[in-house]
Design goal:
This protein is an alpha+beta fold. About 25% of the residues lie in helices and about 40% in strands. The longest helix is centred in the N-terminal third of the chain and has 16 residues. The protein is elongated, with a radius of gyration of 16 Å.
Amino acid sequence: MNSFVWPVRVYYEDTDAGGIVYHAQYLCFLERCRTEWLRSLGVEQDQLRQQYNALFAIRHIDIAYLSPAKFNDELEVTSAVSQLGRVSFDFEQHIYRRDAELGKKVELCRATVNVVCIKADSFKPCAIPEIITSEILRDH
């Protein structure tokens, strides 16, 4: 399973009054990484809607917060497809902070995200477009 990596800098707007990343903001970081992963495959989400009448929706997220991220931290968000079905797939995602003092990455958050493909006009499940499944299968 190949991981896609996306760097994120924590901005002031990502934090609460104590300078700690607000819990819901981690979901945004994970979403950005999945979006950039899709873009790296040469697929834009508006293109999916226009050409395939397809959208992606989150069905389920299991998330564990392990250590806090703080204002100005440099993070590394990873995404890897761990399971592929006909209409849905699972991502294993992690968020790390590069810790210069420790000389290693520290895991801050991990999540399993189930994404379902739906028709844009009816919101009914539909097959994941072959342009995406072929790239996922090529990486495995």
